[in-house]
Design goal:
It is built from eight helices and 16 strands. The protein is α/β, with parallel strands linked by helices. Helix 6 runs parallel beside helix 8.
Length: 265
């Protein structure tokens, strides 16, 4: 059995036209598959509407108790069920889940972190860190064998009655790693760009292949930065852990080969 794990970003989830196209294309992908989604753009909008100011540090959302309530409502509620409904419309028998459901994804609350860039110590609040062994890959396989397509938001649980907000790229990478020793597994990150670009404002500057050595150079010269940095770091961890292939591409291109392939050195 070969499993494809897809992750879509919040900017796709927040764009109805892009999301509907993705849902149609994803439903048409043959074979077993899993979907993980973000929703940060909608969560930030909701925070502002409720009178709160989103706080992002190095691409990660600081999550206090009020923020945790909001992101849980957005990710596990509106975003997750809207995606599931679109997939059902397209003939894909999807089931929407958070990490708390059946205890499938347990996370550890992140301790305060000292930032290398500034030396400042940051408490991210109710943010969860993951290890592949924290994920019940056997349960995911069982759902797939039942003919279901699991759709995960990035809300996880700590196993002690608490919820945690976990980066969706990290969830996707950890799920792929948890499945890699049970089946051949590919990981596909889908967002609003065509892949990794040498110039983020020039779609023709697509990098089609990145090795760990090339990634180190792109990171050192600042070509890869901000939100793309954790995406690529998670991707190479997945490859090192046994995931067969990782691709980063535009959400509208999942039916073709255009994108950036990450390859072990």
């Amino acid at each position: 059995m070969k499993i494809k794990v897809f992750k879509i970003g919040g900017n796709v989830v927040d764009n109805r036209e892009k999301l509907e196209k993705f849902a149609s294309d994803f439903a048409a992908v043959p074979g077993p598959k899993v979907l993980i989604h973000g929703g940060g753009a909608i969560a930030s909008q909701m925070q502002k509407q409720l009178g709160f100011t989103p706080v992002m540090i190095e691409g990660r959302r600081v999550t206090d108790e009020d923020t945790l309530r909001i992101v849980t409502m957005v990710y596990a509620g509106w975003c997750n069920k809207s995606i599931v409904a679109l997939l059902q419309k397209n003939g894909c028998n999807a089931i929407g889940l958070s990490g708390a459901d059946a205890g499938v994804i347990k996370a550890d609350k992140r301790p305060p972190v000292k930032l290398a860039s500034t030396g400042e110590t940051v408490d991210y609040g109710y943010v969860g860190d993951l290890k592949p062994e924290n994920i019940d890959g056997n349960l995911i396989i069982s759902l797939i064998r039942m003919g279901l397509t699991p759709v995960f938001c990035a809300i996880t649980c700590d196993g002690r009655g608490g919820l945690l907000n976990t980066n969706a790229d990290t969830v996707a990478s950890a799920i792929a790693l948890s499945l890699a020793d049970k089946a051949e597994t590919d990981l596909v990150f889908c967002f609003e760009k065509d892949g990794v670009l040498l110039d983020k404002d020039d779609d023709t500057s697509l990098v089609t292949l990145i090795t760990p050595e090339y990634f180190a150079r792109l990171k050192a010269d600042g070509t890869v930065a901000d939100g793309m940095l954790p995406k690529l770091e998670n991707a190479f961890k997945a490859i090192a852990g046994g995931v067969s292939k990782v691709v980063i591409k535009n959400s509208s291109n999942i039916a073709n080969d255009r994108g950036t392939t990450l390859q072990a050195g």
